[in-house]
Amino acid sequence: MTRVKSIYVCDDDQWILDTVVDILSTLKLDILTFANGKLALDQIAKDSPDLIITDINMPEMTGLELLKFLDGNGFEIPVVMLTGSLDPKNLREAVAYGHFEYLNKPIQPFDLIETVQKAIAFGYQPSALSQEFRDRLKKEDC
Q1: Residue 130 to residue 111: CA distance in whole angstroms
Q2: ∠130-132-138 over CA atoms, to 5°?
Q3: What is the pLDDT along the chain (142 residues), one digit of tens a residue?
Q4: Gap between the Cα atoms of 73 and 46, Å rounded
Q5: What is the bridge-based pairing of β-strands 29-34 and 79-83?
Q6: Exposed, middle or buried, 130 (CB in 10 Å: 0-12/13-18/19+)?
Q7: What is the C-alpha to C-alpha distance for residues 63 and 69, in angstroms, rounded to an integer?
Q8: Measuring CA to CA, which residue among 38, 85, 84 is closest to residue 62?
Q9: What does pTM read for this prediction?
Q10: Angle at 76 between CA 88 and CA 3, to 5 degrees
């Protein structure tokens, strides 16, 4: 018997959290929701999920800050970033720290389901970018 995959969803908008849970309800997943990255991080310390879906802009700890923490502390968890506006600086930063995918809001159900299925199937994949290039991207300002 296979273990049920767990997903953490981080967003400060309760409607988005509810929408993601509703969309993914057809998949057999254990889904926990959090209002910000810090709350998710407290839970990650106890039990690491198979996937994190996170908004970029949230209070207390943004999605990018969560991504940096995961990258800097050896967590190998795929991350899907949600955004209402694709800011080139955020995109560069997320690529530098590695992530699985970007999804724009409003969330399209098919895109979310497909992305989650791919992330779970492939698991954590280090960025295809060379480590040297990733380090350079981390240091550069947009």
Answers
A1: 28
A2: 105
A3: 678 999 999 999 999 999 999 999 999 999 999 999 999 998 998 899 999 999 998 999 989 899 989 988 888 899 999 988 767 777 777 777 777 788 888 999 999 999 999 999 888 776 554 555 556 656 665 4
A4: 14
A5: unpaired
A6: exposed
A7: 10
A8: 38
A9: 0.86
A10: 125
Q: Which sequence spans correspond to the domains of the chain?
A: 5-139
Placement of tokens 């198979």 in the chain = 50
Classify the C-alpha dihedral 36-42-47-50 as positive or negative.
positive
Say if domain 5-139 classifies as CATH 2.40.160.40.
no
The encoded tokens of residue 6 equal 């767990």
Cβ atoms 53, 78 nearer than 8 A: no
**Cα 83 from Cα 67, distance rounded (Å):** 14
For residue 12, the Cα-to-chain-centroid distance in whole angstroms is 14
The pair of three-digit structure tokens given for residue 46, joined into one six-digit string: 């106890």
Residue 50, token pair as written in the block: 């198979």
